[in-house]
Amino acid sequence: QAKLVNMMSSLRDKAKDFGSVRRSYESISRHNKAESLRVERQVKWEFEKLQKFLWYEEQTLLTQLREETGQKQDLIQGKMEQLAETSQALLNEATQLQADLKQDDYTFLMLHPNPFSVVNPCPRIAYTAEEPEPIPAGMLLDVAKYLGSLQYNVWKKMLDTITAVPFSLNPNSAAGWLSVSEDLSSVSCSAYKGSVENPERFTSSPCILGSRGFSEGFHTWEVDLGGLTNWRVGVSRPYKDTQWNFHHDSRSGFWYIYHLHGKNECRASNTLRSEAALGNIRKVRVELDCTEGELSFYDADLQSHIYTFHEKFGGVVFPYFYVGSSQDVASAKTLRICPLRVRVIEDVLT
């Protein structure tokens, strides 16, 4: 009977465990439904901005087309009226000459003295009319101005209105203290708020990962610390099967530099705890060379080297950030992924 009692107790405990996991799935399901609606609204809003931009460009181009059409039509109409008046005057003169030719010679000579006489030149237009002016260049609409590489030219203009970042922040990894911007490019620390439980999420500290992992090649990005005095910037191995380790250091797969409140120095997360730089840095540039196994940090403003890790990262690593709370609660500081400088290189297609 004792064995049966123990078995019964064990089964009930397991049933509770299964029930707990089931409730977690229910929570995730509710979260996904709410997120789906929010993301759908955000996607529609982003496309509305693009549509407004395209509509404005379309209207601007059509307005220019109508203005050019109107200007050239007015010019052409003026030329046509002038030519019509001159043509009619010539026809009237020809008709009058035809009538005069029916007069006798004396009357005709009285009406038409020597046209080349200096004393009494002929006032008739038939002798003084010039040749019509040739049609000048540029009277046709500049079609190439409106249709030449139209989509490409609009796309290049669009580059000036959009922001591109090397990667987005992953909100599914954000600890409950963190608030991620709608465009997923910045994050700040505030009061703890409940969030759905999922294995990728940090729970012991205000950390977040980037959405893109790197395992080969060279990659670089810049981080604007926004006046934070308690921060970490680096890379981390991805989550695997178990909860995140409470201790984030090089031995547990975290490589970063950090700064603490009240300190005038920046340090690295290696076991030596060596001093990396003095002062609180405003902007950090990260250079990750997966092939060579190097992770370097630079002061982006001063363009000076801070620290370099020489490690075998052992697979994919993700950008890693710790966003500590601000001492001034009323004004939370924001960490931001700096946008890329996008350049268009034009070349002949071969």
Give a short synopsis of this structure:
This protein is α+β, with helices and mostly antiparallel strands and 350 residues long. The chain has 2 domains: 161 residues, no CATH class; 167 residues, Jelly Rolls (Sandwich).
CATH class of the largest domain: Mainly Beta
What percent of the residues sit in helical stretches (DSSP H or I)? 25-40%
Q: Say which CATH homologous superfamily of the largest domain is assigned.
A: SPRY domain
Count every beta strand, where a strand is a DSSP E run of 2 or more residues: 13
Between the first and last Cα atoms, what is the distance in angstroms?
85 Å
How many structural units, i.e. domains?
2
CATH topological fold name of the largest domain: Jelly Rolls
Spell out the blueprint of helices and strands.
Layout: H1 2-100, H2 105-111, H3 125-128, H4 143-147, H5 150-159, E1 178-180, E2 186-189, E3 207-209, E4 218-224, E5 231-236, E6 254-259, E7 265-268, E8 275-278, E9 283-289, E10 294-299, E11 304-310, E12 318-323, E13 334-337
Antiparallel strand pairs: 1-2, 2-13, 3-12, 4-9, 4-13, 5-6, 5-12, 6-7, 7-8, 9-10, 10-11
Keywords:
six-stranded antiparallel β-sheet, 2 domains, elongated, B30.2/SPRY, Jelly Rolls, 5 helices, Butyrophylin_SPRY, 13 strands, 350 residues, TRI35 protein, single chain, alpha+beta, ConA-like_dom_sf
Descriptive notes:
The chain is α+β, with helices and mostly antiparallel strands and 350 residues long. The protein folds into two domains: 1-161, no CATH class; 171-337, SPRY domain (Jelly Rolls). Helices cover 36% and strands 19% of the residues. It has five helices and 13 strands. A hairpin with a 4-residue loop joins strand 10 and strand 11. The protein is elongated, with a radius of gyration of 40 Å. The mean pLDDT is 86. Residues 147-340 form the B30.2/SPRY domain. It comes from Prunella fulvescens. This is TRI35 protein. InterPro entries: B30.2/SPRY (IPR001870), B30.2/SPRY_sf (IPR043136), Butyrophylin_SPRY (IPR003879), ConA-like_dom_sf (IPR013320), PRY (IPR006574), SPRY_dom (IPR003877), TRIM/RBCC (IPR050143).
